[in-house]
Automatic annotation (TrEMBL):
Molecular function in Gene Ontology: DNA binding; DNA-binding transcription factor activity
Organism in which the protein naturally occurs: Paenibacillus sabuli
Protein known as: GntR family transcriptional regulator
InterPro entries attached to this UniProt entry: Tscrpt_reg_HTH_GntR (IPR000524), WH-like_DNA-bd_sf (IPR036388), WH_DNA-bd_sf (IPR036390)
Listed Pfam families: GntR
SUPFAM superfamilies: Winged helix' DNA-binding domain
Domain of life: Bacteria
Amino acid sequence: MFVELDLQSETPIYTQLADQLLAGIASGALRPGDPLPSVRSLAADLGINLHTVNKAYQVLKQEGFLQVHRKRGVVINPDGMPGVTAAFQDRLRHQLRGMAAEAAVRGMSQEELAELCRSVYDEIRQSGEGGNRDE
């Protein structure tokens, strides 16, 4: 899986990394049971601090997307992905609220915003279809 980080972005690097790993899971490029690189290895490959990679992994572990094994390392949760919870819906609503407010202030219609959301969702879900998996 290819990871691209914007080191100049206001979005923390660990958040960018976690988001890209989630996109890989959503697209099917990363499947349950797939191993991820070690913290040190991924940090070296990306040229970032190992604590940044560790934080991204820990966030995804706490949410139930990853498992960390002493012998097997970090893997995509082989027991399946967490479902939609009230806490997730609350967090999503909070994040969308700010984006929707800015879209409205900029003059974007509700339909344009909804179409953009659909487009992004479809793009993520379809990006893994027919793609090459490096194994």
